[in-house]
Amino acid sequence: MLRFGYAARTHTGLVRDNNEDSGFAGPYLQLVADGVGGAAAGEVASATAAYVTSAATMGSSDPNLLEVLARAVAKVHEQLRAGVAAEPERKGMGTTLTAILTDGSQAAIAHLGDSRAYLLRDGELSQLTRDQTFVQMLVDEGEITREQARRHPQRNVVLQALDGDVVPAPDLQLLDLRLGDRVLVCSDGLSDMVEDDRVAECLAEPDRDAAAEALVQAALAAGGRDNVTALVADVEDGPLISRDGAPLGALQDPHVVLDPAAVRSDRSEHETALD
């Protein structure tokens, strides 16, 4: 059965005072959520997105992975909307979400915003996600190049995110993952700072722990202007094991999750992702 062997790193960066990135790295789920909103509680949004998605997916026995991910995203939106209603000063908080899920036989991805997923296969790096940003729209329309987008003054304008206002429409697709593939899920604190060639070089490091550390250090060496999170996952074969994983960043503080009890699993032994 397919599963992930994984390593993960997160860092506040060299400019920010707190880490609004959240991550969850496990044998069946790799997820990064990058909070937006600053004083409006970006870390609350990202931690809630990571918690709800990990809990909902780990507890599901539905073979339709796209539906599982879609329901998880809808649940996050519901929780963020309730959180803003309870404390109006949180209005404006939101988060990106990029999550890769496998049930052992197939894999799927859900994507909102400008966090990214990459695939390294046979030494070649490809991007699995498309940034939902203003500058990516300009690139698609031929107005600017990919290199110009990296330096564009509006490069951080996200066209879609998970928040309490707009009903989300995530990019959902099945993935063709194979044994020996290596996947990277990261926040834009990495992808905005480090060129793809350097990402590929770091990701090619045989030891995945060393690869994850090299990616974070590359972002810091380039200026570290944002929080940076990197999850490095190797597609492996093995028997079914516990779905538990490692929380990262803001998700490590359970007090910032809006309502952990709101997620109810259809399998009681996996009621929450962090039990």
Q: Mind explaining what this structure looks like?
A:
There is one protein chain. The chain is an alpha+beta fold. It has a single domain (2-254), classed as PPM-type phosphatase domain (Phosphatase 2c, domain 1), CATH 3.60.40. It is built from 7 helices and 13 strands. The protein has helices at residues 42-58, 65-86, 134-140, 146-151, 188-191, 196-203, 208-221; strands at residues 2-11, 21-25, 29-36, 94-95, 97-102, 107-112, 116-121, 124-127, 162-163, 171-175, 182-186, 228-237, 246-249. Strands 2, 3, 4, 5, 6, 9, 10 and 13 form an 8-stranded antiparallel β-sheet that branches. A 5-stranded antiparallel β-sheet has the order 1-12-11-7-8. α1 (42-58) packs antiparallel against α2 (65-86) and α6 (196-203) runs antiparallel to α7.
